[in-house]
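Onboarding guide, step 5: your first structure request.
Type a short instruction followed by the sequence, for example:

Predict the 3D structure of this protein.
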Amino acid sequence: MTQKKDDDLQLPSKLDGNDQVGDWWASNPMTYGNVHGDGEYLGDEQSYELGTREMFTKIDETFYAWNKPLHTEKPFGKIFPYEKYKGKKVLEVGCGLGTMSMNWAKAGADVTAIDLNQTSIDQTTLRFKTLGLTGTIRQMDANALDFADDSFDYVYSWGVIHHSPNLKKSLNEIMRVLRPEGEFGIMLYYRPSFLHQYMTKYIEGFLHYENRFLGELQLASRYGDGAREEGNPHTWPITKDEMREMLNPHTSQISFKLLGTEIDNIFPLIIPGLGDFMSTFLKKPWARRFGWSLWTSGQKKSS
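The system replies with structure tokens like these:
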């Protein structure tokens, strides 16, 4: 199995539009359950109903547990500058079922949350109403944001726009609506990661012969997402150099951080037996180099 270098631009052929993506995610929302859209969770005998307070609580508990190293007294406090943007205009591109936009609203930001599919909009709206939070929640395509230039002080997106058939256009739109010297944070899946190179390309593609029937984009879409759901129309992990090239016209300040929160689950599969007993200290260097979640942050150029 030959692996591409990180600096090799390797963007797959694009779909014609976002209709397939929006329709699939509307039918299979990310509940962090056993499968997309499911209200059942491993080790929990209760089945949760989408749209209930109990379901929102379960979604959040599961999502937070997956990302435990990123929290302070606030969820994701190690990466999100909540205090700096209290009272400021904050945009989330791809709000899913509203966990992150909820936290920004609780922290006092003037939150706008958008998503491509109506299920996410309905559920996030219901979440805000249930919790008595204020925010603007709108259905919108990240490739054509319906906001004026320089509208927001901070823009972020978590695990969403790698599902866009035109990632570059989505990034251009994010930077367009961000004010000069405003900050951004974007999490995308990372192509050189253990999860993609070992779990998807080697295990599924090579050992299970899936690469005989699926192209590289199809393979990544089917097996690269968290629940590994059949039918996912577009998931394409990125590299640092691809991100740098697409963002360079907008900013000279870019930093990368590989989060690697999934390494604990993958190491026992890569190194059976030994992987179960490896300390966090020994795993961290691998997580920082081969983690699945690439966090890109920076500041837009001044006018």
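Each response can be followed by summary notes, for example: Strands lie at 40-41, 44-47, 89-93, 110-115, 136-139, 152-158, 178-189, 253-258, 293-299.
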